[in-house]
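Researcher: For the annotation table, I need structure tokens for Outer membrane protein assembly factor BamB. Please keep the output clean. Sequence:
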Amino acid sequence: MRWKNAALLALAVLVVGCSSNSKKELPPAELPDFTEEVQLQEQWSHSVGDGQGDTFNMLVPAVEGQRIFAADVSGEVVALDRTSGDEVWEADLDVPISGAVGAGYGLVLIGTLKGEVIALDSDTGEERWRSRVSSEVLAAPATNGQLVLVQTSDDTLTAFDAYTGSHMWTFNNTPAVLTLRGSSSPLLTDRLAIAALSSGKVIALDAQRGIPVWEQAVAIPQGRSELERVVDIDGGLLLSGGKLYVVSYQGRVAALDVDSGRVLWQREASSSVGVAEGLGSVYVSQANGTVEAIDERSTSALWSNDQLARRQLSAPEVFSSYVAFGDFEGYLHLVSQVDGRFVARERIDSDGLRARPLVVGDWLYAYGNGGKLVALTIK
């Protein structure tokens, strides 16, 4: 276990391109100059404890109604009015948080390094229930109002009663020998529990019984070494219009039919952070720092922006007519959905910006590694 944990962390560092003593390693690209076309206006900012911490957490905030919920690595959870930034409540769980934040149906859901899932009341922050799972939780739990679904670092899926926290079912998977540090947040509909695995597969289970409905391989491990064979799906699943969008590391980006798992289209890609969708295109932040727009009809690249090579980009998010994403120096970039040109840039947090931006209507929320949560609009 000690070797495996060290290997996981080392691989995560390798993937994001952190500095080393090797003379052959290329540095991150310098920020390109461009003519600003739109202005990002900060509406409010709030400090959330210690932020993401040093273990490559992806503690993405969540919105329910008029509130935004965020958590830090040390156990602080806050609820803020999402338009004013005023604090509604704060809870100190006093546990190391590694999977956050899931929200919906009156619950705020948190996963911990100690193998716990904690449900808080979204109105008051009071703890509703706390249950054990098989290992650490590295992604936000999901809920459909009846169940809470948790994916642990060993690819096990566990469902709990949303009201009481009582165990409903468990589905075990065999994880890959070597994996990235992280896991994709599962999806939970009224009918299906959907999860992406370190083996490069996506599975769908019957939500009520935990029985397999379909399974689809998005990527197939290739290469002689275990490093070359890593095909984790860590970047999250995107469900839109009956299509399930997914991207793997050293594999493919694909669209699946959510009911059957059938591959609608696929294209080679490598990403550990995820995709966004809009205007008939799918946007991918590649592991090498290239951002690409893929046309869903032809599966060809509409445009590719490689000017941020090796800058450890976050997952993209569609914001108005633009695509937003962060980088390791804490800059939020906006590029055009049409041709990928830069239109705006704003520094959010000097500690970096690896969590996916969160967009609700005309508002964008960015959560920096150092704990700075910022609400932005286009001026």
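Researcher: And a one-line annotation?
Model: Residues 2-16+37-378 form a domain with the Methylamine Dehydrogenase; Chain H fold (CATH 2.130.10.10).
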